[in-house]
Amino acid sequence: MKHFKTYDKQDVLSLTRLRRFETRLGESIQVIADKAHWEESLAQSTARYIMLGIPEDIGVRANHGVGGTDSIWVPFLSAFLNIQSNDFLVGDEILLMGHFDFGDLKYVIEQNAQSYDEKIDAYRHAVNTIDDEVEELIRHITALKKVPIVIGGGHNNAYPLIKGAAKGLHKAGILPLAQINSINLDAHSDFRPAEGRHSGNGFRYAEEDGYLQKYCIIGLHENYLPQNVWLDIVNNPFMDFITYEDIFVHEKRTFMQAVAHATTFTEDGYTGIELDLDCIEKTLSSALTPAGILPLHARQYLAFTGSDSNVAYLHICEGAAQLADGRKDETTGKLVSYLVSDFIKAHDNTTQVV
Fold it and tell me: Is the model's pTM score more than 0.85?
């Protein structure tokens, strides 16, 4: 994997603040034992969860968005590795594998593309490279019946996650066909037309290429749902959504009823759990919203889906510690650490094995 950096124990401990009489997750979490033979090390690991980062904003920029989704990975790690290792979450079932670094792709585009349109085209072309490498790793992880936990980057990465997980679970003999379901807590559908790869059409490509079976969106904002996308969704029996307005404005159902509806809709297969941080009110992201769900809702969503779904993977994306326009929020990484720990605690108490 050309763009993947594998971690060792020293990498982990460099971000872990050791303290006498305490044990942090960074001390108990697993890493790849032999970087040169990472496939064998991964297969031999007892870890159930394989954590990795995709700190890139190429897909967001390709979607005419504000860059900065490449900034969340390290702040997340700094918070997550310093969680207390205790009876609630020990950490020894987690393997921190490393992260992708696509900085060279971005550098070439910035140096060579002359116009705005040329940059958009180049970014969309670069997303294809990201797709291929992410898919390969996710396929390998899921074929070992382990659960990938993927942090950072744009929502463009939903496509290689769905594709890789579907292929991996099929290879493992778990799925008769290389298809999985997806639940997405998001203000946007990310089902825009297949006009070239970007953060707004990952689920469209996954559906058109036959890897996405059922897709349910929770908290979709009516103000940001294009009419053509709305028609595509309502005319597809394998797709469903509950809008933010129906939950919180019109109060047709509670938030947890909406989540339960999504898990029921997708209960017939393995499901990728997606959380776009731009749905959380005032959380720094590529499309920050003043009117969204609370962090508590996001935590409840991951706890419920983690325990009530046949999980293929967890993907938390679109968040930022610093955006390209200068806006900063040092708490975003800590929020993501809460979300990941909630998911693992809930899923680890189930008997499901991917």
Answer: yes
